[in-house]
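Review form for a predicted model. The reviewer records the input and the model, then writes brief findings.
Reviewer: anonymous (R2)
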Amino acid sequence: MKHISDHDLMISVKDGDLDKLGVLFERYHQKLYTLFLWQTRNAIISQDLVQEVFMRMLKSNKTYRGEGQFTTWMYCIARSVRMDHYRKNRKKMTSLDQAKEIPMDGSDPELQAERQSEIDLLYRAMDQLSDEKREVLVLSRLQNYKYEEIAGILGCSVGTIKSRVFWAIRDLGKIVKSMNGICHEM
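Model under review:
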């Protein structure tokens, strides 16, 4: 199924072949999960949001026109799902204590502890960024989407995305630097 394009799969779903949605799920559920995990810091909520994205894709399959890239359409739905979740659950925001730990490769325990400490620092620093800045960093740096794709997802110009990424990286660097200073003073 790797040779069938996302667009063709979604057209098949639109035409009633709902099994093709399963192929799209296999292709994109991990990327969506990672995106949501960075945004919610909660594995269970992230899994639920991924499921909601695919449910909305199924419900709105008749409106899929395929004029742009499939991923742009999918991430627009994901963004809407996330915003709806935040609106409904403003008072139930999660903490870092519920964050999924990044799996380690079984190497030296001291190295693992150091790596986990760095990951925890990054999570805490990312939490201090605005949702807008965190979103562009996850899409551009962790998921390797091109600025053009991110612009389509977020509905703004490529120049705006470049600017947001620049400021997000700059702010993240400042946050990490200040947190490192705090950590070393202890």
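Findings: The chain is about 70% helix and 0% strand.
Further findings: The mean pLDDT is 82.
Recommendation: see findings above.
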